[in-house]
Amino acid sequence: MEIALQATGLTKEFKGFVAVNNVDLSIEKGTIHALIGPNGAGKTTCFNLLTKFLQPTRGTIKYEGRDITRMKPAEIARLGMVRSFQISAIFPDLTVLQNVRVALQRGRGESYDFWRSDKILSRFDDRARAFIDEVGLTEFTDERAAALPYGRKRALEIATTLALSPDMLLLDEPMAGMGREDVERISKLIQKIAENRTVLMVEHNLSVVADLSDRITVLARGEILAEGTYDEISKAPEVIEAYIGASHD
Ligand SMILES: Nc1ncnc2c1ncn2[C@@H]1O[C@H](COP(=O)(O)OP(=O)(O)OP(=O)(O)O)[C@@H](O)[C@H]1O
Fold it and tell me: For the whole model, what pTM was predicted?
């Protein structure tokens, strides 16, 4: 078993409040791993620690065997570990093609200049079109981003993330705010992009988690409560109790 991302003793305190407490986490290469748990469990904090948007109080994080504990998000992105929406938002007035082009250009560490001619940017066209096809947006290639339906915007955001050539993708609630049709479409897309990449996602939609995840870590009150396949964790009494308990909070 090859490990892509490994956290050891990961801890985050906010003024004495322990939001993430001594978490050990191993994400196997090539798998889809979900981080779940009731409200306030520490999922977002944990996600922000792993993606380096927050500094841990204690603990270490390794990506592909390399210590990334003190690295910045942009540095780990260059190592191949990319968070969704890392390159901020979509430009609403640019087309789908232009947005992915910009992402490709930024992925190379060049800053984006609005005055840059279309001719210079067009050298990214072929690769941009490949990503657009990969996320199923071919028919929207020349649409303005602002005109896309919500689920398609999400797909575009994923395309711009893929433009950074990640080996590992970290997705923060990829299904948030989506209707059923979009959930199905984005689920398929995540499965597809995971064929040759590692995926870690924080997700509230448990049927999505059940469908997609090879392995699931359940957090509660900042600690790992259970870990395993969906079948395993959904039968664990402590998990059932944590979810039922939380719904009465
Ligand atoms: N910047 C902060 N300062 C103080 N406390 C914080 C901060 N960020 C998070 N917390 C606290 O840490 C705990 C865990 O929060 P976190 O957002 O990580 O949980 P979560 O599992 O993502 O919850 P949800 O499912 O509701 O998004 C909560 O009690 C929260 O109030």
Answer: 0.89
